[in-house]
Design a protein that fits this description.
681 residues; alpha+beta; Helix Hairpins; D-amino Acid Aminotransferase, Chain A, domain 1; OB fold (Dihydrolipoamide Acetyltransferase, E2P); 7-stranded antiparallel beta sheet; 24 helices; globular; binds nicotinamide-adenine-dinucleotide; binds zinc ion
Length: 681
Amino acid sequence: MNPQERIAELTTLLNYYNHQYYQNSVSEVDDFSFDKLLAELTNLETQYPDLRLSASPTARVGGTISKEFKTVFHRFPMLSLGNTYSEEDLIEFDKRVQKGLNGQSYDYICELKFDGVALSLTYENGVLVQGATRGDGVRGDDITNNIRTIRTVPLRVHADSVPALFEVRGEGFLPLAEFERINKEREDIGEALLANPRNAASGTFKQQDSAAVAKRRLDCFLYSFLSDVDVFDTHEESLIALKGWGFNVSQTWKKCADIRDVMLYINEWETKRFDLPLNTDGIVIKVNRYDQQRDLGYTAKSPRWAIAFKYKAMAASSVLNGIRYQVGRTGAVTPVALLTPVLLAGTVVKRASLHNSNEIERLGIMLHDTVFVEKGGEIIPKITGVDLTRRTGQSQPIVYPTTCPACGTPLIRKEGEANFYCPNERGCPPQRQARFEHFIQRRAMNIESLGEGKIELLIDRGLVQTPADLYKLTVTDLLGIEKIFLDEETGKKRIVSFREKTVENILTAIERSKAQSLPNVLFALGIRYVGNTTAEKLADYFGSMDAIMNASSEALLAVPDTGPRIAESIVAWFADAENREYVEGLRAAGLQFVGEKKMVEQEGDSLTGKTFLYTGTFENFSREELESRIEANGGRLLSGISKKLNYLIVGENAGPSKVEKAKKLNVPMIGEDEFMAMLVM
Ligand SMILES: NC(=O)c1ccc[n+]([C@@H]2O[C@H](COP(=O)([O-])OP(=O)(O)OC[C@H]3O[C@@H](n4cnc5c(N)ncnc54)[C@H](O)[C@@H]3O)[C@@H](O)[C@H]2O)c1
Ligand SMILES: [Zn+2]
């Protein structure tokens, strides 16, 4: 391939990866591979400047804006950072800084490079007025409402000395613990898992529904301050002040006197970073003094006074001794690799995730192979490849089981799904146990005192078949029973025994669970795809278990955010005779089958398929009434003016900027009378 062809190929490919990464929150390649391709393109362009294409990703910030949000212009451009994986490059960087500053002395501030989404927050008179994404660096998406859901972001800064107008920038992220929690929940209801915390954060910030965003507890670390007036002389001062004003500044930064100090910081955090509550992929080195930053200036894409040093993913090699097939609550069978223990990023790794059978095939691994294990964003490390040079005659092909490792039932694979399933929902021991565990969790029936082996014991003793049987348990059933559990790994014994106090606690918790509301009961049933939020929406809409149980697929589809996949799953679940019997058992036990019907009754469909936004006040409706009438007639409310908006309803004292924007985008504006006329059409 000649340079011209290669440049064209790389330009197209990298633009595609950027699009996937920034617009769709998907990484099709790992960052290291991406950065290598980008470096190759940069080199080719330097060698053959005439061949550079106008769409080249080398001199532009990768993202763009989206149509779903209002566009905002950044007061100061939001740039990218030059990056490197090598110490030599860092020394080169330091030499450039030294040269650029003509012999002045300087120091650096080192920070961790947080792996999330860049955010810009604007404060006017101490009040948060705007939160935006980086977008293409010049314009970003206005996601103020979503940013307001972050609890550590101050909505108002209580400090006398803050400038009238200033901007802070930072990295929005999904804490690892939260990422794990969400994925556990998704696994529980059979949803596909989120790939990694960065992409999950990026996808969450782009959601339209701020209430849904609030449910994922996003967080944000702030790392820079900008204003028109000079407030600080150094970056260090700004970090200290931001912290003092109540911003969430990670206390991992450090002032470094020279590049050798920087290297020490890099080494120090290479493994320590895994103890942080979020993923980091390197460190950022910034010249401390603002006047020196100004002297050094910017390229089209990044500051000359800063650079990112990225850590290569931590890898180790180990031997694959076996595979354990785990059966989850929904029957999905997932392989876990059992490895010879190996030290990786400060922890001993014995297991690695393999996701599913496709992954085993893709990697081409065999039993007893030497494999590469990497610690990336996830808590469990993953196998990334095979060391073929060390394959011995001992290697054996991995034969994926065709029957359930727990109960022997032949496995099935549903169309379009990567996992094999054990269809024996009720008889398969791990599935049965997981069903109980799902039932007792806090968001379901909240009988968590039954955790940690107690359920296993009840099942073992034949005291319970389905969770409905919990409500028949008596003191005599429970008192005195016990079981010894042996931890396979440590060889330690653990005794679970039901003494008087335990029994009392359990029976009280079971009794109290009868007061759990309809959405909790519905969620407790464990219908695939019916998570907490869906259960709440169904309960709000139908008001009773019977109404849900007897609802047709079409009726279910009318519930907000309920698509065909959820609707079909619900209908199929209730069509099953044994499930019906189970539900009747729960009814007989006295659980809450009736709730509050909170959803607006459908009045008509005259607004179906149309989107609305309103501004100002109205004679015949309060804001709430207007919103509920729109929804009750099949219309949809949007949160901002975009080309997608069909009508802006304009009332008294309408917001001039909204009207202006609607005019610019040719969005039809209607008055209250016209809206009422549409209702009766
Ligand atoms: N895997 C893929 O498909 C794919 C596609 C596109 C981009 N990428 C990755 O994204 C990178 C490019 O993204 P980029 O342009 O946002 O650059 P970058 O992520 O390498 O650096 C700039 C960003 O770093 C972040 N940052 C984190 N901590 C910071 C701190 N302490 N101080 C200042 N900034 C901090 C900010 O959000 C800033 O916008 C590439 O290096 C690549 O690894 C991957
Ligand atoms: Zn099974």
